[in-house]
């Protein structure tokens, strides 16, 4: 294949993604693309996301038809300069279709989680990328896990080493959260930096994870090169009210009927709550120790129906770049007023619903 001809392929969003399908193309053959242009909406078994162009170029062929299930790595479209003959482009398309028909695709090397021992607890994490320099560490929110970064970690790993971890009580990590305090959770992140040998890292935290990474920076400012906070807990005015009904309801939900309507509050578009997403969370909530862990963490998040965390106070003495990004349709934690916040079109789970906007703000992608 000519080096001038480039394939755009089905991305791998998350460890468990094996296939996806194009729902809608936003571009047409003959369009000139810039890096980062929206190409298509792609649906996985967990959630839909928007695929960006990984590079600039002339879109010569669209290969993937909407609605067709394709394996990770399948060719979706072909870019090539205008001077490249149609016959050369058609040969690449024919090769891609033959590769698909042969069943050659779908056997890519699986990325497996690793385990770190931190403060006597087993912490699960996954690493993508091997770029030199300071790594990026992604820290999820209350009831989330490392897989919530499925649309963020892989694109970031093209230019950075990126670690996503499960906090104690979450995902595949040990369910013991100790006293469940912010200090305990911050200690886990600091201990994790020790395990991976990172003197400093850029920390990205969502919701509870945002407060956790702020606490890390307050406790050990020399270990943090920058903070990106996504709808961080405790960032509103002191005593402001989160959706306490959601937090308590999520902690106590034990059935699909209870859980699904609550999850709809996390997104601007409730249709993004797929059956698989509900099933995965129910499976997690039924694990031994999860209920106790979530109840302990509720005491860290809530003072009655008010926020118990004061994240601005944690940041008061922190002298590193801090970016705060919020979904404009967030129903769990309202967008604070009078502070410097970047808004994106999303609900509380902005890193899943508006990942491309988050990436653009994070590193100017």
Blueprint (SSEs and pairs):
Layout: E1 6-9, E2 19-25, E3 32-33, E4 38-43, E5 48-52, E6 57-62, E7 69-71, E8 75-79, H1 86-101, E9 114-118, E10 121-128, E11 136-139, H2 153-156, E12 162-165, H3 182-196, E13 201-206, H4 208-219, E14 224-230, H5 244-252, H6 256-263, H7 275-285, H8 290-301, E15 302-303, E16 306-307, H9 311-315, E17 322-327, E18 342-344, H10 350-353, H11 355-363
Parallel strand pairs: 11-12, 11-13, 13-14, 14-17, 17-18
Antiparallel strand pairs: 1-8, 2-4, 2-7, 3-6, 4-5, 6-8, 9-10, 10-12, 15-16
Helix pairs in contact: 3-4, 5-8
Protein name: Acetoin dehydrogenase dihydrolipoyllysine-residue acetyltransferase subunit
Domain Lipoyl-binding: 5-80
Keywords: Lipoyl
Question: What is the first-to-last residue Cα distance?
Answer: 28 Å
| SSE order | EEEEEEEEHEEEHEHEHEHHHHEEHEEHH
How much helix is in the residues? 25-40%
Query: In order across it, which strands form the biggest sheet?
Result: 9-10-12-11-13-14-17-18
Give the strand tally: 18
Number of domains: 2
CATH level-four homologous superfamily name of the largest domain: Alpha/Beta hydrolase fold, catalytic domain
Number of helices: 11
Quick one: biggest sheet? 8 strands, mixed
Using only C-alpha atoms, the radius of gyration works out to: 21 Å
Predict the CATH topology of the largest domain: Rossmann fold
Percentage beta strand: 15-25%
- At CATH's second level, what is the architecture of the largest domain? 3-Layer(aba) Sandwich
